Amino acid sequence: MDTSNMTQIFSEFLGTMILILLGDGVCAAVNLKKSKAEASGWIVIAFGWAMAVTIAVYVAGYMGPAHLNPAVTIAMAMTGSFEWSLVVLFIVAQVLGAVVGGVLVWLAYLPHWEVTEDQGAILGTFATGPAIRNYPANMITEVIGTFVLVLGLLSFSQHSFTDGLNPLVVGALILSIGLSLGGPTGYAINPARDFGPRLAHQLLPISTKGDSDWSYSWVPVVGPVIGAAVAAGVYMMMV
């Protein structure tokens, strides 16, 4: 493997780590007891995730494509703008980055876990969950949200932006999805974003954490992959 590919793979690890550190970090700020941002609400979470994506893309974007999302990587490969030979390596790097990001959130809020008794709030800091558990409906929500994400990203490639502006545009896309489509499932729209921190939740020594809800974990993996594939197909028909 040449140095360029190794740099790109590392950038996916680093960028996804930053994405989860800042994204799950805002969830921790809102969810955990005695945080100065406790109970500040969904708008804060949506803006926090939008900025997390923006910063992560800035961090990773000069070293590689900054997918930071297995569904995006698969879609880019489907459209021919990314090598299939690197897909698995990118996904592994993204998942590992997400796990490390989850661990860093735990460290950043270390005293707050023990004083937070709400197991749902703790799990919700790491991973997504449905407002109403209905697997077919939850799947549809994740498919639609990821469809919008990937179609938006692919459509951006047809426009010219001022140098350095693209990550902000991507952040605006994430903010829009979070505000408009995030209510039903917490808008994972990214298999690594959910699976990696959920695994961290499973492994970390948080005495009050409860179950990691693996029975739901397939939805934020399968749904985004389907949504991304559909978006790639629509894009290829249009372009």
Automatic annotation (TrEMBL):
This is Glycerol uptake facilitator protein. Pfam families: MIP (PF00230). The keyword Transmembrane applies. InterPro entries: Aquaporin-like, MIP, MIP/Aquaporin, MIP_CS. Keywords: Membrane, Transmembrane, Transmembrane helix, Transport. One of its GO terms (molecular function) is glycerol channel activity. It is found in: Membrane.
